Amino acid sequence: MKIALDGFGGDHAPLAMLEGAALAVAEYGVDVVITGDEAVLRKTALEHNISLAGLEFSDTKDVIGICEEPTTLLQEHRDSSLGRAFTLLSEGKVDALVSAGSTGAIVVGGTFLIKRIKGIKRAAIASMVPCENGSYLLVDAGANTDCRPEMLHQFAMMGSMYLESVRGIQRPRVGLVNIGAEETKGGQLQKDTYHLLEQDKNLNFTGNLEARGIPLGEADVVVCDGFTGNVILKLSEGWGKFLNNTLKDLFLTGFAGKFSAALLLKKISGLRKRMNYKEYGGAPLLGVTKPVIKAHGSSDKLAISKAIYQAKLVVEQQMIARITKALADQKEEG
Amino acid sequence: MKIALDGFGGDHAPLAMLEGAALAVAEYGVDVVITGDEAVLRKTALEHNISLAGLEFSDTKDVIGICEEPTTLLQEHRDSSLGRAFTLLSEGKVDALVSAGSTGAIVVGGTFLIKRIKGIKRAAIASMVPCENGSYLLVDAGANTDCRPEMLHQFAMMGSMYLESVRGIQRPRVGLVNIGAEETKGGQLQKDTYHLLEQDKNLNFTGNLEARGIPLGEADVVVCDGFTGNVILKLSEGWGKFLNNTLKDLFLTGFAGKFSAALLLKKISGLRKRMNYKEYGGAPLLGVTKPVIKAHGSSDKLAISKAIYQAKLVVEQQMIARITKALADQKEEG
């Protein structure tokens, strides 16, 4: 299996990309094509003594910056490191794409260079977020600021299939983010979506989900518009940081703290590992015809390798074929 | 000073109301009028040995339930315990109102029975939420699902004045909740609000605020629509619960945990106190002509006493007169 990796997307590119790719080759037995300035990539690999086994380069000088208008990917930045990765994917030269670059540009590339699955109204970012009992899938985590009820319904459907096929969770509980538990709560978007979700017998819809229940693990698929989703994702990151700082403050200062840390080492490191988004791999762009994985902008080596692993699972589990089939079945039924 | 307390709003009414009122009388030197079924209130006080010094009763049998349509407060539940409290406030028989009842009904009562300050488009709930360095003010925390830019601008203005006058924070930093730091990010509501906030020289506007920065204390006044605000408020509560459970799991299980807890007792109890929303008193309904304070639905004795204290501060600091004057000044300038 061959995976394209955007060599110049993300805060720690290109070093973290090279290290992550090498780690993924070693751990998961995939081949990786890294896009971007080959001279810089080779020089960086040499300086950091990174093995090039299983790695290929696809040379291009241009990079699309994080602040640039996402649609420039289709024109002036068509042959940027990200654009090139999309070309490789659309031409079938790789099986999947991973990038830690701009979310907007990845959504644009997935939508216009790869295309949406027939019947899908909008592609959505689906992020795994840590919570008390493990983790949940948040869709949409930031691709679509404004949403219609049918879009949220499709997010619920695609999210459920992703958890079933890639994460092995049977009949995942779907919750609709709302400001109250009753079905009459929220704005028009929430009210209309509620009815669509309730009527879809293929979903395990558990009703409206007040945000209080999200970190406590009350749903497996947390459905909302991309503005709300992005707020939930980032607020959770902030809280994770806060929790981490709190543990540091408790345990790394003073004799009592250090002594306690030694006593509780296993528990604390388990907790920190569980709260580390890097362990959760990348976020798939659901709804497009080929596997596209968005890695966190601040991804390090570990996060990149996990995102590549994620891409491998999506390919192996034929997630996209499943979504496509389910949509076709649904159309037949309807 | 005399404060009306809705005796039958909230999960722990009427007992927590009686206990909280008695505590507030003792601690803050206020008088409290408790509304609701006097026979039940007196019986409960007797059974729990609660002092009635400084307390009065205003007898009414009806209660507006948490699931009832908020506007029923204006008709069939006009003389409920909450409706009666609004009557006392509107007739000038008390200086402020505190209720742990339905947010919707409190907003309706404030808006239609007390009226909005001239020029204010919508009343908003302003909640203090704990964060890393202390706490921040979230407006709107849930009164208005759909908002326009001028409304968010007024929330920012009122929130700043509240922090300045009641909490003594000079030039509080105002952040607009958005999905990116650049001013071009977000939907139309965010873009238009950004320009209004930027142009208002009376505000210390620090720009768009990504949700990651909220728990880390990057703004003092966190401005958003009521849907987003409610999600932020409740997600933060859920995370607080998660943090609390985590600390319990770390420290209350096993010998090493208990031993460490003993060593770190002071730090842990300080942290738990800081994360306890009950310490933060109630949330004022900003934008109405008299002091109305919403206490958390699950308020206990301590939370109710703090909410009453909050009401006292709002009266003493003449917060409403300040907002009214600032609006008049603004109108003159404009």
Automatic annotation (TrEMBL), chains A, B:
Gene Ontology cellular-component annotations: cytoplasm
Membrane spanning stretches: none
Pfam families listed in its UniProt record: FA_synthesis (PF02504)
Gene Ontology molecular function: phosphate:acyl-[acyl carrier protein] acyltransferase activity
Enzyme class: transferase
Keywords (A to Z) from UniProt: Acyltransferase, Cytoplasm, Lipid biosynthesis, Lipid metabolism, Phospholipid biosynthesis, Phospholipid metabolism, Transferase
Purpose of the protein: Catalyzes the reversible formation of acyl-phosphate (acyl-PO(4)) from acyl-[acyl-carrier-protein] (acyl-ACP). This enzyme utilizes acyl-ACP as fatty acyl donor, but not acyl-CoA.
Family per similarity comment: Belongs to the PlsX family.
The protein, known as: Phosphate acyltransferase
